[in-house]
Amino acid sequence: MIIDRAEVIVTSPDRNFVTLRLTTDDGLTGLGDATLNGRELSVVSYLRDHVVPLLIGRDAGRIEDTWQFLYRSAYWRRGPVTMAAIAAVDVALWDIKAKAAGMPLYQLLGGASRTGLLAYGHASGQDLPELFDSVRKHLELGFRAIRIQSGVPGLKSIYGIASNATVETMAGVRYDHEPAQRGARPAEEDWDTRAYLRHLPTVFEAVRSEFGPELPLLHDAHHRLTPIQAAKLGRSLEPYDLFWLEDCTPAENQEALRLVRRHTVTPLAIGEVFNTVWDYQQIIREQLIDYVRSAVTHTGGITHLRKILDFAAQYQIKSGMHGPTDISPVGMAAALHLGLAIHNFGIQEYMQHGARTDQVFQQSFTWSGGLLHPGEQPGLGVELDTDEAGKYPYEQAYLPFNRLADGTVHDW
Ligand code: CS2
Ligand code: MG
């Protein structure tokens, strides 16, 4: 199986997506997601200008060798652009190998370790009534775990509140929050940590009294707190028994989590902006997190993320793969196949894509009883309709950024 064609397909049905499609000399195709939100074209160039010329003529069956070749021969290692490009090649090759074997990819990865994948949905609201309404909508959709994001009095617009952006999904339900806004410049948002720290525990108190103690509840602090503020938040949320508190503090300095861990037993999830195992070494070895948040698309593909999760398993740390709308249906399918096969699966994030996106990407995953399953099609189970994709050219879009009241740029 020799790779004799490699295409980088950019489309923007409901948002921008970058997809690599590899075709072998015997006509098998494989897809890989290379979408890096707000910086999509950098990965397109990395693939088109530097990687694609190296793939033509290679043996499609040598996945590990191709991974090592792309990682080591680049000389410049790691980083979001490189690891998204390598991820796309890796997943496309796994798709081809599973198709050649005539089986769904999870079977090639060792078979199913469970009947389906518990997934969480995004409930949000500017205020409690809107939030409660969103929780009820997600329970009606079958979600058995829910992420709670709330507006903060005094702040105009903050991360995660769906009412800020609307796109109709297949099910006609309001589209979850799409952070990247189309336009020539990133939107500026305001932030006040003390107001947030005062307000959030009251939100969880209200949600627990409205929906009871059982429902698994998650929250994303989205990298905005210092370690001691994160410790304080984790402790103040302990009475509400969160499934996890995510990205409580920027984790470039992995040591920062020691301070958080010292003060709270609220489970911690980190890693969606990480790209390699080296970003996790200390926080896994020192048991400073409970969930690995990396997505296949941003962490060097199935080949590399599986190694991170195998490392994490030694410390009883589980997966909590990133699954927002900027992970394409191809990246999502890869996450579902890997998640079904590994033992230390924790939970899967599931934001529904828009109706146009579902036209461009034909998918075979299933959603029932609050569980996702990748389906039984050979390979990933996703096909890309090139003509449909061609209808939606790339549109510049940026993630917002934050400024504090005194004008200081802050983590968004
Ligand atoms: C978020 C993402 O889903 C999440 O947990 O952190 O929505 C994140 O903001 C986007 O993926 C950024 O592109
Ligand atoms: Mg997050």
Secondary structure: elements and pairs:
Blueprint: E1 3-11, E2 17-24, E3 29-33, H1 40-55, H2 63-73, H3 80-101, H4 105-108, E4 117-125, H5 128-140, E5 146-150, E6 181-182, E7 188-191, H6 193-211, E8 217-220, H7 227-236, E9 244-246, H8 256-263, E10 268-270, H9 281-285, E11 291-292, H10 301-313, E12 318-321, H11 329-341, E13 345-349, H12 355-360, E14 361-363, E15 366-368, E16 371-373, E17 382-384, H13 386-390, E18 397-398, E19 401-404, E20 409-410
Parallel strand pairs: 4-5, 4-13, 5-8, 7-19, 8-9, 9-10, 10-11, 11-12, 12-13
Antiparallel strand pairs: 1-2, 2-3, 4-16, 6-18, 14-17, 15-16, 19-20
Helix pairs in contact: 1-3, 2-3, 3-10, 6-7, 7-8
This protein binds D-mannonic acid (CS2) and magnesium ion (MG).
Magnesium ion binds next to loops.
